[in-house]
Amino acid sequence: MTGNFPLLLLVMGAAALLCRIAGFTLMRLVPVSPRLEAALRATPLAVMAAISALAVQAGGLAEGLALTAVVALTKVLGSDVAAAILGVGIVAGLRWAGL
């Protein structure tokens, strides 16, 4: 750790708080149109897709197989959280198996 770590942590926390407060404040002022609502509903999926793509690119076969399994498990289970947790287990098992 560096000597600046507490200051950096405080600045990052303040920035996160400011972003949350600004988001809630702006959402009170902006009328929610169907187009905006569709964009807000699509944002979490877009973020997860970007994170998954980077993990597969940086990882390899184990991550690719686990991502495929997570997509299938999401369809079967109907719960993306449960599928993601199982996906972590799949990656761990594949890495333990040597992939």
Walkthrough of the structure:
With 99 residues, the chain is mainly α. The longest helix is centred in the N-terminal third of the chain and has 25 residues, at 5-29. The protein folds into two domains: 1-30; 34-99, no CATH class. Helix 3 (61-77) runs antiparallel to helix 4 (80-96). It is built from four helices and no strands. It has helices at 5-29, 34-58, 61-77, 80-96.
Number of domain modules: 2
Number of helices: 4
Order of helices and strands: HHHH
Termini, distance in Å?
A: 33 Å
Question: Percent of residues in helical segments?
Answer: over 70%
Question: How much of the residues is beta strand, in percent?
Answer: under 5%
Spans where pLDDT lies below 50 across 5 or more residues: none
Q: What value does the average pLDDT take?
A: 89
Major sheet characteristics: none
Number of strands: 0
Any idea what the radius of gyration is? 19 Å
Apparent shape: flat
Which structural class is indicated by helix and strand composition? Answer: mainly alpha
